Structures are given as C-alpha cells and as structure tokens.
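Standup notes, structure subgroup. Blocker cleared on the magnesium ion input:
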Amino acid sequence: MTETVLSVRDIQKSYGSGSGRFRALKGVSLNLVEGESLAIVGKSGSGKSTLLHLMGLLDIPDEGEILYRGKSLSALTSRAADTLRNQEFGFVFQSFHLDPHSTVAENVSMPLVIGGVKKDRRRRVIEVLDRLGLADRADERTSVLSGGQKQRVAIARAVIAKPRILFADEPTGALDSTNGETVSQLLFDLNKQEGITLVMVTHSPELASTCVRQVVISDGLLLSTSGEGAAR
Ligand SMILES: Nc1ncnc2c1ncn2[C@@H]1O[C@H](COP(=O)(O)OP(=O)(O)OP(=O)(O)O)[C@@H](O)[C@H]1O
Ligand SMILES: [Mg+2]
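Run returned:
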C-alpha cells in the first residue's frame, strides 16, 4: 500500500507587493507518497525552492492548502507547525546553514536540543556522525571543515531526529563530483534503508533520474510528472 504523506493542493505564493509583486507559484498540486524519492527540477527562478519551503512548512502559501497525513495544516498555530517540522521533517540546504562557531556535534544535536531530547544525546550524535565518516571531527568547529564535510554535517543534523520526510535543496550543488556522489549516495541510503521520504531539488539530471519520480516546474507551474509514480 502506498500512502500519501503530504498533499499540496493548488498552492500559490507571491513575493513583494504592488507593481513589484512576483507570482512565484501559480497553483501547484502534488501528492507525496510515503517512502518515495521525488526530484523537483526546473530552470533557475522557476519556483523550486519556494515549493520546497512551503512543503516543509518553512513558509506559508497565500492560497491553497497543504495536508500532512490527511490533516490540513492551514489551521496550525506557528508553534504547532514548528513542533511538527522539528519532529517529522529534516532539511538540507545548498548553503549548509551551519553555525560556524559551534562544533560539529553541537550543530548536529540542535534538533534534539530543540525537541527537548536529553537522553543519549551525545551517543546518538556520535552514532550518526560515525555513519557519515565524521565521528573524529565531532568537537571541531564547522568553520574548519571542507564543503563536502559541511554538507555531511548538515545531513547528520537533518536526520538525527529521525524525520519522516527529508527535504533537500540542491544538496550536491556546492560540491565537487566525488563529494557530490558521496552525499547523494547517503541520501538514497537513508531513503531505502530507513524509509525516509526524500524530496530533492536538483539541477543534476543524473541525480533527478535516480529518484523514482520527477516533477518539472516552469514559471511557477507544475509542467509534468514522470517516473514510476507518475500515474499516482
Ligand atoms: N524572498 C523573496 N523575495 C522576493 N522574491 C523572491 C523571494 N524568494 C524567491 N523570490 C523570487 O521567486 C522566484 C522563484 O524563486 P525560487 O527561489 O523558488 O526559484 P528556484 O527555482 O529555486 O531557483 P534556483 O534554481 O535559482 O534556486 C524567483 O523569481 C525569485 O526571484
Ligand atoms: Mg532554489
């Protein structure tokens, strides 16, 4: 059985106001199926990051609705949305978004700190860092790491609280091909081994084709869907 985890219904989003108003999303609908990997592709400025942010509850649509496991999220208070996001979602951003002054371990443990998890915190952090080949860097500041290492720290932080959905915005965009490969392999391992649903924005046709389904965004509209789940 395939279950829809997240539904996006006719969402619209504009930035700015008056004559400077720009319609970034003009009515996008999409179902995300539990355990799948979905690639969002399209030209620069087409609305991919905007869609990812809305799906991940990092921003609110002007129109339309988002449902998580069948429940509309529009009525959620921002605090309830924060809790849901922290418990169920993980994020990997192109520019890492790490705190350079904190250590690797402190950055990775952040979702556990926010979630009030105290038990086994250090052990869990080291365990996930170990999987990513970074356990020996745990107590160094992230500012001294390479781009590929920073991206792995960002992934460790994204998965430490065991999210159900992992949103990744061009996770390999800033990396060379070797590091990019390591990072994408890691994301697909998490998807396959832990059943984490993966939503990824990417400019890489290769990475997109590794996902079971691809959607194309053009000028704020969903152009087409392809891949195994296209008929869903
Ligand atoms: N905070 C903002 N304020 C004003 N305009 C914005 C803002 N964020 C995005 N936009 C505009 O909305 C459009 C869609 O942006 P978005 O970041 O979603 O594109 P994208 O498809 O992710 O592009 P890229 O591939 O370059 O990352 C762009 O024209 C952008 O200029
Ligand atoms: Mg973007």
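Discussed briefly. The two ends are 12 Å apart (CA to CA).
Next: hand off to the docking folks.
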